[in-house]
């Protein structure tokens, strides 16, 4: 049985292509596109497998794109728990300007999930996670799924005795009120959550600790982009800076960080070393195009660097 089970309520067939230059109006000649199974929890499961952890991905899928996603995940050695839905899985598109290196990402809203389909997703999660140590909910919710649905995911994780990790935004993030082991907001999301600007490390640590004190979560990891990340608990705060690499694509970097964090905790690393593995995994993802999964050798190399900083 998998140690890590992810739930992705709005997965995507990710399409990536390159063009010499991206300009308005003109016809743009692109490279042959490549396809990846994507979406927050799907990406987390892929990277967890790269790191040697056992992982399963629960997600709804429908139509031809849903079938194509399943075939792609076979290549990533991820156990799949697919909930068949009536509507079509979404497709997201990334175009990379080869001259400037700039990346343009186009995200579609996704299918509308009925109440019955939402229930089947929860049932599949409980079944897949019966012996799991971590349940990870990552990514946005599709149309028809209210933000409060995240509370039901938290309860499902508690029912099977797994620690719940949340990486979402918007209504889902604002709706969670308890039951989280680790949550990973960006700095902007944390500012919105607590309702004020957080200009420096002391303010950010204090705001993150508020969430712990309120009983929402045990651990807060605040991703700071080019400044790395802060990991905060009730009595500890650790920081790992970002690593300087040439970015090929930022798609999936946040999901890769979550995978590294969870695997680090699964390995019973110290908080700082778990955060270092998260930073290393996110950095390795920056070297790959689109949502291509990162390489183990890159993660190991960056992990050694991050632990020394």
Walkthrough of the structure:
- By secondary structure, the protein is an alpha/beta fold.
- It has a single domain (4-308), classed as UDP-N-acetylmuramoyl-L-alanine:D-glutamate ligase.
- It is 38% helix and 23% strand.
- It contains 10 helices and 13 strands.
- The protein has helices at residues 40-50, 63-74, 115-128, 149-159, 170-175, 187-194, 201-213, 253-266, 271-285, 296-308; strands spanning 4-7, 12-19, 34-38, 55-61, 79-84, 90-97, 103-106, 134-138, 163-167, 180-183, 217-223, 229-232, 237-240.
- It has a 9-stranded mixed sheet with strand order 5-4-1-8-9-10-11-12-13, with helices on both faces. The protein has a 4-stranded mixed sheet with strand order 3-2-6-7.
- The longest helix is centred in the C-terminal third of the chain and has 15 residues, at 271-285.
- The protein is globular and about 55 Å long.
- The protein starts with a strand and ends with a helix.
- The mean pLDDT is 95.
Give the uncertain stretches in residue-range form: none
CATH superfamily: Ribokinase
CATH architecture: 3-Layer(aba) Sandwich
> Mean pLDDT, nearest integer?
95
User: Gap between N and C termini, in Å?
Assistant: 36 Å
The number of helices is 10
Oligomer: single chain
Q: Radius of gyration, Cα only, in angstroms?
A: 18 Å
Number of domains: 1
């Amino acid at each position: 049985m998998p140690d890590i089970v992810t739930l992705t309520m709005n997965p995507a067939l990710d399409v990536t292509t390159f063009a010499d230059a991206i300009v308005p109006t003109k016809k743009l000649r692109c490279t042959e596109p490549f396809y990846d199974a994507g979406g927050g929890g799907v990406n987390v499961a892929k990277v967890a497998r790269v790191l040697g952890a056992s992982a399963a991905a629960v997600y709804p899928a429908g139509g031809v794109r849903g079938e194509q996603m399943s075939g792609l995940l076979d290549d990533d050695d991820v156990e799949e728990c697919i909930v068949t839905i009536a509507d079509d899985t979404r497709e997201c598109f990334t175009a990379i300007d080869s001259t400037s290196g700039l990346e343009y990402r186009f995200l579609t809203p996704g299918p509308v999930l009925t109440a019955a389909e939402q229930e089947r997703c929860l049932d599949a999660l409980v079944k897949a996670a019966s012996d799991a140590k971590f349940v990870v909910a990552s990514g946005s919710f599709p149309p028809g799924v209210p933000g409060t649905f995240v509370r039901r995911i938290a309860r499902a994780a508690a029912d099977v005795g797994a620690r719940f990790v949340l990486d979402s935004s918007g209504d889902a993030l604002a709706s969670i009120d308890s039951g989280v082991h680790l949550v990973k907001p960006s700095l902007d999301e944390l500012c919105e959550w607590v309702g004020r600007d957080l200009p420096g490390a002391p303010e950010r640590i204090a705001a993150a600790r508020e969430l712990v004190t309120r009983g929402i979560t045990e651990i807060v990891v605040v991703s700071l982009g080019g400044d790395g990340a802060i990991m905060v608990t009730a009595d500890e705060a650790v920081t790992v800076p970002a690593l300087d690499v040439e970015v090929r694509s930022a798609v999936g970097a946040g999901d890769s960080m979550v995978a590294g964090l969870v695997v680090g905790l699964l390995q019973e690393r110290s908080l700082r070393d778990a955060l270092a593995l998260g930073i290393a995994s996110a950095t390795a993802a920056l070297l790959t195009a689109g949502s291509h999964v990162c390489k183990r050798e890159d993660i190991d190399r960056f992990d050694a660097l991050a632990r020394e900083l």
